[in-house]
Amino acid sequence: MEKNIQELLRKTLLRRSDDALESDVANYSSLYGDIVYLEIMRLLTGKSPGLSESKRYWCDALALRDGILQKTHYRLSMRASILELIQKNSSDFKNLVFIEAKDLDSIRHCSVTDGLTGLYNQTYLKTLLGQNVPMRRRIDDSASALILLDLDYFKIYNDCCGHVAGDEALRTVAGIIKDQIREQDIAARYGGDEFAVYLPKVTKNVAFAVANRIRLAVENTVFPGQELLKGRKLTASCGISFYSEETSDVKSLIEVADRELYNAKRLRNSISPCSFERRKHQRHPTQALLQCFPANNGMSETAMACNFSNTGVGIWSNIPAEPEDSLTIRLSKPFWSDELEISGFVRQVSPDKDTGLRYLGIEFDRFLDDCTSYIPMSLAKSVMTH
Which of 110, 131, 257, 300 could cysteine-pair with 148, CB 3.0–4.6 Å? Predict the structure, then answer.
């Protein structure tokens, strides 16, 4: 019978799930008795102090694990919990190789952090999300936000500059992220050149501001060898999701952030969604020609700008665009004071019956520091707000 029990427990251990192990041990013990505790201790430690002691150790390990979880929000594995108990009761075991208590914190730290960047790893991030993402819809304006960040063309950077430079770049980005977030925020290396930031209790606009600060800091950092890239800079793109009725669990929260990151990667050096809250921005009426490149056909179309701001532009054109369509705007001299190429999304479409033209309100995918630097003084008129 012992061999049958051992085989059953080995199969459970292969699943590497503490929840499954706890459930199976409880079920098997109700069928076969306390010998199950003896066999599980033997499989986990290679030794056993006896039937009654094995059951006691197992129950104490469960209690220890749950107690640590309540105090630190970190869930130890059953092996780690049993190890703690063995250290305190070494007289019950013979010929065991122990881990020094002073090294245990280091071992725990390594199990939850990424060795290269020092940030949390993906496994620990998902554990924290499971514990912190609220299981009911918030009724106030605060939310839990998740930012997924990916470096643009990092594979090319790695190939051109080498893996040593690539690793150093990842460490630098990790430092940038830590500098831009609050103490209660959680940053993790999600995998490869992808990072994640969990922001508890933030408004949507604050989450966007955090993501944009990180994006700008990466863009403004000089990485050795970045001039070999197409844009001559190593940049980052971000996708943001929020806890809501649609994203009411960890899986959906990550899926939405991943989908938004995919949208941002299509533009590079951008954030998706590109903004969350309408603010009042100075909108400067102007009349100047510009070029539009709709994403669906890539053909250049000439349009007339009628207003311009740090967040977008209003144009009159014949472009058959619809809300949420993406396009690229290009400003050129002599119609504008400076050259600019920027991507954006159509947010408003209003046909004019008299002229047959369509007014398109376009929101940029990033903020301009000073839109007036592009508008010739002769074209800048009175200021409107929207």
Answer: 257
Closest alpha carbon to 165 in 154, 175, 176, 174:
154
Q: Residue 254 has which token pair?
A: 């990550």
40 and 6 Cβ atoms separated by less than 8 Å: no
Q: For residue 37, give Cα distances in angstroms to 15, 34, 286.
A: 18, 5, 80
Q: What angle do helix axes 35-45 and 78-88 make, rounded to 10 degrees?
A: 90
- The sign of the torsion formed by the CA atoms of 25, 28, 30, 36 equals negative
Three-state secondary-structure class, residue 185: coil
Sign for the pseudo-dihedral over CA of 118, 207, 349, 245: positive
Radius of gyration of the chain, Cα coordinates, nearest whole angstrom: 29
CA–CA dist 26, 22 (Å, integer): 6
Question: The pTM is what?
Answer: 0.49
Cis peptide before 273 (omega within 30 of 0): yes
Structure-token pair, residue 218: 């990466």
Tens of pLDDT, residue by residue over 117-135, are: 989 888 888 887 876 665 4
The most distant pair of C-alpha atoms in the chain lies apart, rounded to whole Å, by 94
**pLDDT tens-digit map of 40-79:** 887 777 666 778 888 888 888 888 888 777 765 666 677 7
